[in-house]
Amino acid sequence: MHKILAFSLVSLGLSACDHPTDDSPSKIINMESNHKQYTPANPYIFEYNDIVYSLKAGQPQDTSHIKFKNLLEKIPSNDNNLDILKTKRKVLIHLGCLKEAYIVTEKILNKTDSSQLQEMQCIFLRKMKKDAHEIKECYEKTAHSYLNEINLIPKAAIRYQYALWGHYAAMFHAGHIEYKDKLQEIVDYHHIEDHKRTYQQMYENILNPNVFQKRLDAIPYSPDCH
After folding, report:
1. Parent domain of 189
2. What is the C-alpha separation between 10 and 3, in angstroms, rounded?
3. pLDDT at residue 77, as a whole number
4. Which of 32, 103, 149, 177 is most exposed, with minimal Cβ within 10 Å?
5. CATH label of the domain that carries residue 28
């Protein structure tokens, strides 16, 4: 499946087919990879990648945590550099600094549109146990973001169905339960076995709060992160 699914599926309880199924911070931020980050203007991405590689290779979590903290101290407060902001956000997520990551993500969204990043903001709010009304507004904002994306995609394109699912799912998460039927319509629309099975699993998971909660529990969060 195409990578456009990834962020949407984090909130729905299913990974895209070409991504690992774990709920590590690396999984959460996997879709933020951008070739523009690999430039001299953002040397911090190289150190970040080294830490992540070592972590995946079996480096102790405590050691990686210290390295991420040291890297965060090196990253300048440069709100004008989008690539540095993206790297800073990744480091903050690994450290469980979701409040800070949320703030940085807002700065990123002010510079570039991303339905997936907007959706992750809602997940951060849920992890931080924010007010239900604030979470509802976040998901409605996400749905609107996906709608803007839909309007730019030809209906015949595969990406159209992905974005449409993201829109319907966000509205469902916002409490508009009538979108349950719209999600089922997308499942019924697909006849290719692999696609239909994937959407059916997504549909079942979005209706199962235990699945989402399990993945939410796996996201690191330090309320008093400094």
Report:
1. 3-217
2. 12
3. 87
4. 177
5. 1.25.40
Query: Among residues of the chain, what percentage have pLDDT more than 90?
Result: 71
Query: Distance of CA 69 to CAs 17, 74, 137, Å?
Result: 32, 9, 32
Among 57, 102, 94, 53, which residue's Cα sits nearest to residue 72? 94
In 3D, which of 120, 97, 221 has the Cα closest to residue 173? 120
User: How high is the pLDDT of residue 223?
Assistant: 86
Smallest Cα–Cα separation from 32: which of 64, 6, 9?
A: 6
Residue range 145-189, pLDDT digits in tens: 999 999 999 998 989 999 999 999 999 999 999 999 999 999 999
Structure tokens at 209: 């709060």
Q: Give the total number of structural domains in the chain.
A: 1
Of the candidates 125, 48, 129, 131, the residue with the CA atom closest to the CA atom of residue 85: 48
